[in-house]
C-alpha cells in the first residue's frame, strides 16, 4: 500500500464512491470524505503532520453540510497543502465559478460530472498521477 499514490476524494454520492473505488482502488490508495467538515478535519491533520499528504484531491462542491469551496480555501491557506493538485468534480457548472476556482484557488481541473462520466474521468486521473 505504501508505494501506491494516494487520492483524497470528497464525494457524498455512495454510488459514485463505489464506481471510483472499483475502478481505481487496485492501483491507488483511495480515501473518501462524504462531508465538507470531514474533509476539513482531514486537511487539518495533513497540515499538522498527523496524516499523509495525498498525491491528488478530487472534490465535489455540492456537499450536504457546506460548500466544498470552504475545503478548497482551507487547502490553499497552508504551505503544506497549497501545492496538492486539485480536481473539482461537481454538477455546479456556472462558468464564473469555474474561472474563479481555476485562477483564484489554483485548481488544476474543473469538471462537470455530467460531462465527465467515470469512463472518461478514470483515464484522466490515471494520467495526472503518472
Structure notes:
A 5-stranded parallel sheet has the order 2-1-3-4-5, sandwiched between helices. The chain has helices at residues 14-24, 36-47, 69-77, 95-104, 118-128; strands at residues 5-10, 28-33, 56-59, 86-90, 109-112. The protein has one domain: Rossmann fold. With 130 residues, the chain is α/β, with parallel strands linked by helices. It is globular and about 35 Å long. Helix 1 links the parallel strand 1 (5-10) and strand 2 (28-33). 41% of the residues lie in helices and 19% in strands. The protein starts with a strand and ends with a helix.
Shape verdict: globular
Largest sheet: 5 strands, parallel
What is the class in the CATH system? Answer: Alpha Beta
SS elements, strand count: 5
Total helical elements: 5
Write a compact overview of the structure shown.
By secondary structure, the chain is α/β, with parallel strands linked by helices. It has five helices and five strands; from the N terminus they run βαβαβαβαβα. 41% of the residues lie in helices and 19% in strands.
List keywords for this structure.
130 residues, alpha/beta, Rossmann fold, five-stranded parallel sheet, 5 helices, 41% helix
Task: Draw up the topology in text.
Layout: E1 5-10, H1 14-24, E2 28-33, H2 36-47, E3 56-59, H3 69-77, E4 86-90, H4 95-104, E5 109-112, H5 118-128
Parallel strand pairs: 1-2, 1-3, 3-4, 4-5
Helix pairs in contact: 2-3
Amino acid at each position: 500500500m505504501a508505494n501506491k499514490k494516494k487520492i483524497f476524494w470528497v464525494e457524498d454520492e455512495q454510488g459514485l464512491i463505489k464506481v471510483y473505488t472499483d475502478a481505481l482502488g487496485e492501483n491507488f490508495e483511495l480515501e473518501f470524505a462524504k462531508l465538507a467538515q470531514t474533509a476539513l478535519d482531514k486537511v487539518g491533520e495533513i497540515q499538522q503532520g498527523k496524516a499523509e499528504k495525498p498525491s491528488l484531491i478530487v472534490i465535489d462542491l455540492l456537499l450536504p453540510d457546506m460548500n466544498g469551496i470552504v475545503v478548497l480555501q482551507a487547502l490553499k491557506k497552508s504551505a503544506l497543502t497549497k501545492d496538492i493538485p486539485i480536481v473539482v468534480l461537481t454538477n455546479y457548472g456556472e462558468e464564473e465559478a469555474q474561472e474563479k476556482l481555476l485562477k483564484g484557488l489554483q485548481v488544476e481541473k474543473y469538471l462537470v460530472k455530467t460531462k465527465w462520466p467515470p469512463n472518461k474521468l478514470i483515464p484522466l486521473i490515471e494520467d495526472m498521477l503518472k
